[in-house]
Specification:
Blueprint: E1 2-7, H1 12-22, E2 27-33, H2 42-47, E3 55-56, H3 59-66, E4 70-73, H4 77-89, E5 93-96, H5 103-115, E6 120-122, H6 128-140, E7 146-153, H7 163-173, E8 196-197, E9 203-208, E10 214-222, E11 225-233, H8 240-252, E12 256-258
Parallel strand pairs: 1-2, 1-4, 2-3, 4-5, 5-6, 6-12, 7-9
Antiparallel strand pairs: 7-10, 8-9, 10-11
Length: 264
């Protein structure tokens, strides 16, 4: 059995992760950490089924007393870098679903992962459908010279654009250096109306709206045709297969991985 700890265990994603770990035959929940609800049974919080693992609020203490093999973290962007460093410095493997890490931080995490010989799996999106969209968008980029991304999330998401949109643009840029071929010179009458500009001049537009969970559209254009691909997350259970895939991959491997597409 893979001993798993969940940090952010009482959040919306954390509860789904706890439930998934409790119901998977290969994993055992041994640790639950959150800033709120200390002493709460993590299983009752997630699915009204007692599991005997009580929520704690001290990550390092929990690591030392519960000794998880792998930690899954879905917390906040402003603290995730420090969390990952804590896991690596304690030589505990981690699966990170919190987005908002900057490219420089990802590089430092990769260096620390190798230095500590401890695996770390970071993914902007754990939905297999969303990852397939990224992979298909990369493939389509060989044949289209113009493309833009629209990502739509609930209005409690703090970072923009989404990690999924950034990763999608990065993959597309591997096949095409410029997605604004033939565009005329532009003047924004309202700043930001053309969205943010990512790798290979891919424009990314972020929408924050109650009612959404997570959606993304990639729009390709060429003379005489428009090609759209889209993915919509209808609830948070869609991420669980990818998370468990990453946990089991890390259990057998000890490497730094960025993106679920690397193991699909």
């Amino acid at each position: 059995m893979i001993k798993v700890g969940v940090v952010g265990a009482l959040g919306k994603m954390g509860k789904e992760v706890v439930n998934a770990i409790l119901n998977d035959k290969d994993t055992e929940l041994v640790m639950a950490v959150d800033i709120a609800g200390v002493g709460t049974d993590a299983g009752i919080a997630a699915s009204s089924k007692e599991c005997g693992v009580l929520v704690e609020n001290d990550i390092e203490k929990a690591i030392k007393t519960k000794t998880p093999d792998i930690i899954i973290d879905f917390t906040q962007p402003n603290g995730i870098y420090d969390h990952v460093c804590t896991y690596l410095n304690n030589k505990v493997k981690s699966v990170i679903g919190t987005t908002g890490l900057k490219s420089e931080q990802l590089k430092q995490i990769e260096i620390l992962s190798k230095e500590k010989n401890t695996g770390c799996f970071i993914a902007p999106n754990f939905s297999t459908g969303a990852v397939l969209l990224m992979m298909f968008a990369k493939q389509a980029s060989k044949y289209f010279k113009n493309a833009e991304i629209i990502e739509l999330h609930h209005n409690q998401k703090k970072d923009a654009p989404s990690g999924t949109a950034i990763k999608t643009a990065q993959l597309m840029a591997e096949e095409n250096p410029d997605f604004t071929i033939g565009n005329c010179p532009e003047t924004e009458l309202i700043q930001g109306s053309r969205g943010g500009v990512s790798e290979a001049n891919v424009h990314i537009h972020s929408v924050r709206m109650p009612g959404y969970i997570a959606s993304q559209e990639v729009i390709f254009g060429a003379q005489g045709q428009i090609f759209k691909m889209a993915h919509h997350s209808m609830n948070r259970t869609c991420y669980m297969d990818g998370i468990l895939m990453a946990v089991k991959y890390l259990n057998d491997n000890n490497s730094f991985v960025y993106g679920l597409d690397n193991i699909m």
